[in-house]
Amino acid sequence: MSATQKTKLSQKLYETLRQRVESGEWSQGTRIPTEMELASQHAVSRPVVREALVRLRDDGVISSKRGSGSYVLNGGNAGPRKFREIENVADVIHAFEFRLSVECDAAALAAVRRGEADLQALYAAHEAFGQGVDDDGFGDLDFSFHLAVAQASHNPMYSTTMSMLHRQIVFGMRLIGQFSSSGSRTRLDLVESEHTLIIEAIATQNEQHAYDAMFEHLSNSRRRLLGFDAVPDWKRHQPTSPG
């Protein structure tokens, strides 16, 4: 099979699978068939399936969990999710600047509005880090945690925005892994401890602490990636009031 034929088959399968999500046939949380099952169902090779699944993950439509499979993130709400690709350091800085605006308020709102189911989802996403993960898997697990925080805000625009940023966010997380692989355990410990502070603030419904913990975590993540501090021109000193 030529590279062109493989690309065409992968594109067709991608569109078919995405349609299942957008139509609601595969709702949020659905575990999709394995690569082998999809290859058999659609009479294509596993590399073709793998390429289609990578595109779905990059679009924020599905997420992979080590040893468990791939799951739908946004169900029937899946739509076009495109931000410009990250091409240079300036793009990385811009992405973090945007995330600091969006995710800190989302964390504060999560502290105000979260329910028990939201807490369980956060704990599950957090505990997944302790099961052992490579650099590629780290990005997906970290994104799942941040998406769970956004979903706990009970404002769908936060979780939708996070899904739109999936590719940019995971790109940065994977770079952190590549640049610090020799100290990956330390990196993992740091992220786990920072996530713990976010969860504790949300669990105790302290919106200011949740805001501050998320701001500190994202600032530290940016520093770990860039190797220097990108001092903000402006910082909100308290979360936006939920009204």
Q: What's the layout of helices and strands?
A:
Elements: H1 3-22, H2 35-42, H3 46-58, E1 62-65, E2 69-72, H4 89-113, H5 116-127, H6 135-152, H7 156-164, H8 166-179, H9 184-203, H10 207-226
Antiparallel strand pairs: 1-2
Helix pairs in contact: 1-3, 2-3, 4-6, 4-9, 4-10, 5-6, 5-9, 6-7, 6-8, 9-10
CATH topology value of the largest domain: Four Helix Bundle (Hemerythrin (Met), subunit A)
Quick one: how many beta strands? 2
- Rough outline: globular
Question: What share of residues is helical?
Answer: 55-70%
What topology, given as strand order, has the largest sheet? Answer: 1-2
Order of H and E elements: HHHEEHHHHHHH
Strand content: under 5%
Q: How much is the radius of gyration in Å?
A: 18 Å
Structure description:
The chain is mainly alpha-helical and 243 residues long. The protein folds into 2 domains: 3-77, Arc Repressor Mutant, subunit A (Orthogonal Bundle), CATH 1.10.10.10; 89-226, GntR ligand-binding domain-like (Four Helix Bundle (Hemerythrin (Met), subunit A), Up-down Bundle). It is built from 10 helices and 2 strands; from the N terminus they run H-H-H-E-E-H-H-H-H-H-H-H. It has a two-stranded antiparallel sheet. The termini are far apart. The mean pLDDT is 82.
